[in-house]
């Protein structure tokens, strides 16, 4: 059995930072898997990707991540535009998207710790969350896969999650960035957003934004904070994905305060350079 299973499409990302363009492997599950691997040994990645695109992602298995690549008609590909004026601002346009996950795909899950990190609404069927809840000791979601929808012009835009009050009580750890937290809570203040989201029944909330990360534990009403160091915009890509991958893996054997400390350290180190974090927290 694996220590953690991570579900989500990998992506061919076209990152544009102050007009400089670079094509790189990416996706929430991509960055999260490397971060988790720095903490636990047996990481399972369940990703959808056409066979002819797999060579771009050979670094995954070279790093020792146990990847199951489920064939897909299309690869997910996104164009993300960042500005040095505000690293929290990002314009994302979808070029193509992978096939939706099926019940058969989820039968592959081989861990009691499960992180669902889709890139956009529809990639992962929200009605499968109760099914995974039955299997998991820790179930974590990245909110982006349930709030970001593709508009007619291809741009990803944020919409509230209609099933949040039904499904968030099933979630142990919810990851949000600043924009997602405000949309999900219908508030304009980050802390108010955390407290409002907690009322939906989620047990722990991990918020990342340009200044740092916050973990809020609903039961104890405890809030823990860690700052982010200054980083290059290229290093900022994958920030939240790295953070949640590290936090969930660390949370297996640590309380929220220690897991957050570990995740903040790994995320800060990752943001110094582009690409996934290849260090080891041993």
Characterization of the model:
The protein has a single domain (4-270), classed as UDP-N-acetylmuramoyl-L-alanine:D-glutamate ligase (3-Layer(aba) Sandwich). Helices cover 29% and strands 30% of the residues. It has helices spanning 28-37, 59-62, 103-106, 129-135, 144-147, 164-167, 178-185, 190-198, 233-236, 239-251, 256-270, and strands spanning 4-7, 11-17, 20-26, 43-48, 66-70, 76-83, 86-96, 113-116, 138-142, 148-150, 156-158, 173-177, 204-209, 212-217, 222-227. Helix 4 links the parallel strand 8 and strand 9. The model has no long low-confidence stretch (mean pLDDT 93).
Distance between the termini: 21 Å
Number of strands: 15
Q: What is the subunit organization of this protein?
A: single chain
Largest sheet: spatial strand order = 5-4-1-8-9-12-13-14-15
Main pleated sheet: 9 strands, mixed
Low-pLDDT segments: none
| Silhouette | globular
CATH homology group: Ribokinase
Which band does the percent of strand residues land in? 25-35%
User: What is the count of DSSP helices, taking H or I runs of 4+ residues?
Assistant: 11
Arithmetic mean of pLDDT: 93
Count of the domains = 1
Q: Would you identify the CATH architecture? A: 3-Layer(aba) Sandwich
Q: Which features does this protein show?
A:
alpha/beta; single chain; 30% strand; 282 residues; four-stranded mixed sheet; UDP-N-acetylmuramoyl-L-alanine:D-glutamate ligase; 11 helices
Which helices and strands, and how do they pair?
Blueprint: E1 4-7, E2 11-17, E3 20-26, H1 28-37, E4 43-48, H2 59-62, E5 66-70, E6 76-83, E7 86-96, H3 103-106, E8 113-116, H4 129-135, E9 138-142, H5 144-147, E10 148-150, E11 156-158, H6 164-167, E12 173-177, H7 178-185, H8 190-198, E13 204-209, E14 212-217, E15 222-227, H9 233-236, H10 239-251, H11 256-270
């Amino acid at each position: 059995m694996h220590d953690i299973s991570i579900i989500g499409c990998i992506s061919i990302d076209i990152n544009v930072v102050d007009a400089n363009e670079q094509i790189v492997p990416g996706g929430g599950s991509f960055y999260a898997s490397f971060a988790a691997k720095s903490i636990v040994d047996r990481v399972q990645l369940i990703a959808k990707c056409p066979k002819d695109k797999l060579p771009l992602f050979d670094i995954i298995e070279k790093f020792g991540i146990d990847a199951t690549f489920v064939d897909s008609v299309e690869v997910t590909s996104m164009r993300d535009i960042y500005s040095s004026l505000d690293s929290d601002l990002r314009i994302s346009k979808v070029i193509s998207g992978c096939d939706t996950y099926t019940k058969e795909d989820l039968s592959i899950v081989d861990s009691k710790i499960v992180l669902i990190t889709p890139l956009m609404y529809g990639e992962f069927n929200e009605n499968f969350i109760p099914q995974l809840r039955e299997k998991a000791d820790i179930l974590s979601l990245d909110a982006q896969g349930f709030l970001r929808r593709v508009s007619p012009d291809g741009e990803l835009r944020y919409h509230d999650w209609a099933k949040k009050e039904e499904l968030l009580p099933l979630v142990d750890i919810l990851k949000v960035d600043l924009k997602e937290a405000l949309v999900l809570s219908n508030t304009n203040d980050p802390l108010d957003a955390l407290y409002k989201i907690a009322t939906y029944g989620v047990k722990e909330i991990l918020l990342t934004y340009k200044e740092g990360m916050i973990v809020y534990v609903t039961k104890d009403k405890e809030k823990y904070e860690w700052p982010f160091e200054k980083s290059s915009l290229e290093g900022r890509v994958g920030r939240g994905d790295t953070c949640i991958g590290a936090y969930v893996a660390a949370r297996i054997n640590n309380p929220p305060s220690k897991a957050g400390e570990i995740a903040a350290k790994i995320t800060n180190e990752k943001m110094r350079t582009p690409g996934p974090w290849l260090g080891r927290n041993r």
